[in-house]
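Researcher: Sit down with what I've pasted below and flag anything odd:
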Amino acid sequence: MTTDDVVPRAPSLEAVETSREDLYEQVWATPINHLAEKFGVSGSYLARVCEALNVPRPPVGYWQKKAVGKDKSRPELPTALPGDQLTWSKDKPLAVPVKNRVRRKPDGAVMTKTISSGRHPMLIGVEGHFRKSRNVEEGEFLRPYKYLLPDIVASEDLLVRALDVANEVYTAFDKKGHRVLFAPPGQRMGRVHIEEREVPEKDRKYGRYSSGSIWSPHRPTITYIESVPIGLALTEMTERTVMRYVGGKYIREDSKVIKSAKSWQLANSWTTEQDLPCGRFRLVAYSPLNGVDWVESWQETAKSSISAMIPAIVRKLESAKDELQTLMTAAEEAAAQRQREWEEAHERYLREEDQRRVKQAMSESQKQLSDIMDRWAAAMSVERFFQDAERRIEDVESQRRVQLMERLALARTMLGTMDPLDYLEGWLAPEERYKSKYS
């Protein structure tokens, strides 16, 4: 959303969420431009919100026809599918709308419309975004500036093949009625750590100084087996490679350049090891839900490709649905138990804090009262001093009496109020300082 899309409005409404059901009722009750003013966005942006939430809108001319009693009945709100965005607020990102909405098969499953380009909707137009990468060393994985991309990690030379493999995987799931899409915003789905090393070693030597970072997407790529979400990540693997430093750069020890070099050319060179992309891929399937520890992976070898494994991969994930559902239920119950324990602990803390503040209020009130009593005693002593002084001044001759009375008045002014009742009025009882919330 651009700055032009937003109309100034009260910031307190930024986080108010609107459900797709409520949005559906409102767009059919109020022209979208008027409704957009209520939400504080532009009409075009609200139209995109409707598209993202799969909420049908009145067609062009609807309100004119309705004004003369010729409006047609509105279409029903489509049933939300697993992975659909269900609510919207101005501070929440929109789900990327599927360019070709899924349609239902007779048995109730869903499938994506065929794309004439042969690419899955998730992969249309993404190659350019992947190639628009941060600077990387030769042989490292691409690091796109854009983060809302399919979960694919590959070197520049293998990008096209990575997209082809991902297309085969996504399409295979779609053909079986399992949507592939970005994890919807606001549903707390996370990506597991993806191991890029073909053979995990005890150390990692990827990138400069063996501390290179690997790009990961902003949101996981998800397929749904019915209502069970499964994350899909495709990564090119790395292999441990001997590199030789020659002519100011590192070159593979097994390259033609090194093999054809003269001995004198290698006299002042040295070797090191580094993890480099190997051209083979690993597909990782995992549960993106917190508390569900489930990961499966398949990786290519010199004799087998991911493409050949796809039918078995689809069957494996379909067969894992019940296991994952059981794990999800257990995770939900564990999360609910943790929530209850947290709430109980928080309630205990609140009660203990309440009692602490009650005791503190009592202590402070008692101390203030004790201080008032001390000041009262001091005030009474001062008052007796002035009274005694006044009596003595009465016995002094007139000229000196005037001077002494002026001095006595000045002394009273310097001391300020000495009325003990003023001190008592400023005293705060314990309940005035803090009133228990549990009494």
